[in-house]
Structure formats: structure tokens, C-alpha cells
Specification:
Layout: H1 4-26, E1 30-34, E2 45-48, E3 52-55, E4 59-62, H2 67-73, H3 85-94, H4 100-112, H5 118-126, H6 133-143, H7 149-155, H8 163-190, H9 205-213, H10 219-231, H11 240-249, H12 255-266, H13 274-289, H14 295-307, H15 325-335, H16 338-341, H17 344-363, H18 374-383, H19 392-402, H20 404-414, E5 421-422, E6 432-435, E7 439-440, H21 446-452, E8 460-462, H22 464-472
Parallel strand pairs: 2-8, 5-7
Antiparallel strand pairs: 1-6, 3-4
The chain binds nitromethyldethia coenzyme A and D-malate (MLT).
D-malate (MLT) is lined by residues 235, 239, 318-319, 372, 458.
GO molecular function, one term: acyltransferase activity, acyl groups converted into alkyl on transfer
Protein name: Citrate synthase
Subcellular location: Mitochondrion
Length: 474
């Protein structure tokens, strides 16, 4: 059985070769035009991203596999049925489906490396309980770079060709420590004084996380968390948190710092924080309308939200133009469990889904009137009794750390001197050709962005294969 490192050792040279060829043979090839600099860069092809592609109608595919495909082929935890982040991580990094043995070996390695350094425990314990859990997570992750293998090797003058091995080591150590870190934050903020169990070396990553959170006996919730965390892992390269990590990683900041930066992008209400906002909004609706709400009442409530100038949380997307298949997968999980299907909060989510798209279409602003993953993800946690909704984005963050960021950071480090796109900041609003050989995407002036209320940045990424296909047409 090959380990993750051995598998990557085989996969990476081929990717490097593919990139080199692309650069040498097609450096001047035009891959698109910049049309929308003041529109949050929607559709701008400006990043290399190999692991996943987001189709507006079909949704996400991970190395070509849809969510139902992944549910068929990716190994689950022993005694479980749902996909787990370890098998998703393997697929995203290598493009290959791991065997159950390879998945178990990775779970074991993560469990063995899962303890937190003492100074991190002390740091987290010193945070005020009132500090938002996402702020705590981001700060503690940044501090974990005290032990960065990448940083230490860089100081000693490592060669570029060695970057990825140290990056991988940092990523594995970081992922391994996330359950203990995220659970400690939960314990300190919501259950102070409760003891934290030791990491069980025979459990998978989420099995341990659930246990540390105090829900280890709830098999159904643990399975939900496995699915949730595996599914949230990657959503191509342009989403706000992934491209933050990509940008920071490209400076050769180590993985801890890159992931920490990404977490702070995820903490915004238009991005990952939407899962807490959805629950807040649905509970307010429930409080105002009571039980047995009718579609007509929900419709009026939606209009009230829209007319007060707020967005309907959990609806709309920068790329998707159909219901998010991650939302569908979580709904299907609930459909298979009678107690979830009849849960008042899940029923309300379903009833809202029946009405909201037509209201949003009539409202006429959003390009996508359908639910995204956040429309249901937090509400299911609420049903299970995990009701502390300011914590929900931490779980989203654990997921992105598990799967997405290693890919971001590895790409950034492997392909560090790769050049993919440029535009002239003076040319706002005009059309610029994006050639493959220039590498200079200027940083926007953040003050200006907030002063003008410019939209969320969300460019489009392309895989190596897709770029190759595109430029070969020239
Ligand atoms: N409710 C009300 N108005 C909306 C909504 C919504 N759910 N979605 C978009 N709009 C408005 C948007 O504010 C914009 O208005 P204006 O012209 O006044 O600036 C207009 O519709 C056009 O926006 P779009 O091009 O459709 O959306 P965009 O790509 O700019 O933004 C989101 C995407 C996700 C930021 C946006 O749909 C939104 O704010 N949704 C609610 C928050 C949410 O659920 N975020 C979670 C996204 C998924 N995630 O996990 O990160
Ligand atoms: C994500 O999972 O990152 C969100 O759906 C937002 C996005 O893809 O832009």
C-alpha cells in the first residue's frame, strides 16, 4: 500500500512537466478577456486550480467526480457510510481514489499527530469567552506556525524542489491538530470546565472531533459531520477563502499563516458566516410565525427581509445558477432519517426552499435564486442539539483546512513561479486580454473597496487540462 507521500511523489513530477510544457509552448496564448474588474472579477480566468471545477448548473466536481460519484467510491469510516475528509483529501491532492487501507493509514497518522502544543492550549485558554470562535481559530492557527517545517527549512536554504515536502508536512500536522484546537475553543466558550477526552488513535479525524466536542455517542451526528466536513472541503479556487490562502501561500508564507488568512475571509457573512446567519434568520421567522407556517406566510416574511434591504441568507451564489448539490446532499441525508425529516427546523428549511426561489425571481436582483449549502448546513446541527450557532463557521473552517488549503498551498508552492494572468489597475471597466505569461495581479485598495461597497471577489479558475485545451485551439 502506497502512502500519501509516496503517491504524491509519483503524481507531482507529471504535473510539473505538464505545467512546464504549457509555459514553454503556450506562454503567449490568450485564455480570456477581463471584462468585469469592478464586478468582483466574476468569470475572470485568473487562477490555476487542479482539484475541482465548479459548473454553474451542475455544481462541484472533484477531479471530475460529482458528489454522488464521491459517495459511491470514496471510503467511509469503519462502521459509517458517509464520505470522510481523509478520503476526500487524498482524492483532491492526488487525483486518485484511495483504498480503505490508505484512508485508515492517513486517519491513524492524523490521530497520532493530533495533540496540541502546550503553549497553544495556554494561548486558547487565555482568550476571552466573548471573542468570536472564528477569531480564536484564526489566531491559534497562525500561532501554530511556531513549529512550521517549511519555515525552518527555508531559513536553512532549502531548494525550490523541496518546498512541497515541507509544505505537505505542515499541512498534515495542521489538519491533525484542528479537531483538538476547534474542540478546545468550543469547550472554553460554551462548556467551560468540561474535561476534554484524549485523542483515540483508532478513530478517524471527524470521529475524534465529534468525541472531543462531546457528541461522540451520537453516531448520526458524527456521520453528518463527516459528510459536512468532506463536502465543504473544496469549491474550486476562486472562492474568497481559497483564493486568500492561494495569494498568501504564493508569497511562501507557511501553510499555517496562509490558512489563518483564509479563515478570516471565511468569517464574513457573505461567505462562511452565512451558515450562522441562516439559522438566526430561520429562528426569527419561526418565532414570529409560530408552528405550522403556510407558504403564504413565508412568502410575506421573505418580502419583509428583502424590503428591509437585507439579503436572504443561504440563497444566491457567485457562480452557481441552480440549487447547490451540497445543499441537495445534506437534504438527502435528512430525508433518510425520519427524526430529521420531521424536525421543525428542517421542515422550515424545506418549506422556505419551496417558496424562496420564486420570491427572489420576482424581486429580480439575484442572478441565482436558489439555495447554497449554508441554507441547511447549520440548521441540521441545531436539530442535533449543537445549538451554539456562532460556532458553525468554525466547523466550515475545519473542513476547508482539512481538504482545500493543502491543495491551495501545495499548488502555490509547487507552482510558485508559474504565471497566469494580469490586468492593468488603471483599466478598470475596460477589457484586457489575459495572457498566460504575465504574473501580476495587483492588490486592490481595501479602503476603496469598502468605501464603494464593491462586491465580493470571486474569479474563475481553470485546471491545467482545461488551460491546455483552451490554448491548443489557438
Ligand atoms: N438576497 C437578496 N439579494 C441578493 C441575494 C440574496 N440572497 N443574493 C444576491 N442578491 C443581490 C445582491 O446583493 C446584488 O444586489 P445589488 O445589485 O444591489 O448589489 C444583486 O442581487 C446581484 O448579486 P449576484 O450577482 O446575484 O450575487 P453575487 O455574486 O454578487 O453575490 C452572494 C453572491 C453569495 C454574496 C449573494 O448571493 C448573497 O449575498 N447571498 C446571501 C449570503 C449567502 O448565502 N452567502 C453564502 C455563500 C456560500 N458560501 O458558503 O460562501
Ligand atoms: C464556497 O464553498 O466557497 C462557497 O460556496 C462560495 C464560493 O464558491 O464562492
Amino acid at each position: 500500500t502506497k502512502s500519501l507521500r509516496e503517491t504524491l511523489q509519483e503524481v507531482i513530477p507529471a504535473k510539473q512537466e505538464q505545467l512546464k510544457k504549457l509555459k514553454t509552448e503556450h506562454a503567449q496564448a490568450v485564455v480570456g478577456e477581463v471584462e468585469n474588474i469592478i464586478g468582483g472579477m466574476r468569470g475572470l480566468k485568473a487562477m490555476l486550480w487542479d482539484a475541482s471545477v465548479l459548473d454553474p448548473l451542475e455544481g462541484i466536481r472533484f477531479h471530475g467526480l460529482s458528489i454522488p460519484d464521491c459517495q459511491k467510491v470514496l471510503p467511509a469510516a469503519p462502521g459509517g457510510k458517509e464520505i470522510i475528509p481523509e478520503s476526500m483529501l487524498w482524492l483532491l491532492l492526488t487525483g486518485q481514489v484511495p483504498t480503505p487501507e490508505q484512508t485508515r493509514e492517513l486517519s491513524r497518522e492524523l490521530a497520532e499527530k493530533g495533540e496540541l502544543p502546550k503553549f497553544i492550549e495556554e494561548l486558547v485558554d487565555s482568550f476571552p469567552q466573548t471573542l468570536h470562535p472564528m477569531t480564536q481559530l484564526g489566531m491559534a492557527v497562525a500561532a501554530l506556525n511556531h513549529d512550521s517545517s517549511f519555515q525552518a527549512a527555508y531559513e536553512k536554504g532549502m531548494k525550490k524542489s523541496e518546498y512541497w515536502t515541507h509544505t505537505l508536512e505542515d499541512c498534515i500536522n495542521l489538519i491533525a491538530r484542528l479537531p483538538a484546537l476547534a474542540a478546545r475553543i468550543y469547550r472554553n466558550v460554551y462548556k467551560p470546565g468540561n474535561p476534554l477526552p484524549a485523542i483515540n488513535k483508532d478513530l478517524d479525524l471527524v470521529g475524534n472531533y465529534s468525541n472531543l466536542l462531546g457528541y461522540g455517542d451520537n453516531h448520526s451526528l458524527t456521520e453528518y459531520l463527516r459528510l459536512y466536513i468532506a463536502l465543504h472541503g473544496d469549491h474550486e479556487g476562486g472562492n474568497a477563502s481559497a483564493h486568500t490562502a492561494h495569494l498568501v501561500g504564493s508569497t511562501l508564507s507557511d501553510p499555517y499563516l496562509s490558512y489563518s488568512a483564509a479563515l478570516f475571509a471565511l468569517a464574513g457573512p457573505l461567505h462562511g458566516l452565512a451558515n450562522q446567519e441562516v439559522l438566526r434568520w430561520q429562528l426569527a421567522m419561526q418565532k414570529e410565525l409560530g408552528d405550522n407556517v403556510t407558504p403564504e406566510q413565508i412568502k410575506d416574511y421573505l418580502w419583509k427581509t428583502l424590503k428591509s434591504g437585507q439579503v436572504v441568507p443561504g440563497y444566491g451564489h457567485g457562480v452557481l445558477r441552480n440549487p447547490d448539490p451540497r445543499f441537495i446532499a445534506l437534504q438527502q441525508f435528512c430525508d433518510g432519517k425520519p427524526e430529521l425529516k420531521s424536525s421543525p427546523i428542517i421542515e422550515l428549511v424545506n418549506k422556505t426552499f419551496q417558496v424562496a426561489p420564486d420570491v427572489l425571481k420576482e424581486h429580480g436582483k439575484t442572478k441565482n435564486p436558489y439555495p447554497n449549502v449554508d441554507a441547511t448546513s447549520g440548521c441540521v446541527l441545531y436539530h442535533y442539539g449543537l445549538t451554539e450557532f456562532k460556532y458553525y463557521t468554525v466547523i466550515f473552517g475545519v473542513s476547508r483546512g482539512n481538504v482545500d488549503y493543502p491543495d491551495v498551498i501545495l499548488s502555490a508552492h509547487i507552482y510558485f513561479d508559474c504565471s497566469l494572468g494580469s490586468f492593468d489597475p488603471a483599466g478598470v471597466g475596460t477589457r484586457y486580454v489575459v495572457a498566460i505569461d504575465v504574473f501580476d495581479i495587483p492588490l486592490n485598495d481595501v479602503v476603496l473597496i469598502s468605501a464603494l461597497g464593491m462586491p465580493l471577489e470571486r474569479p474563475k479558475s481553470l485546471s491545467l487540462d482545461a488551460i491546455e485545451k483552451l490554448v491548443k485551439k489557438d
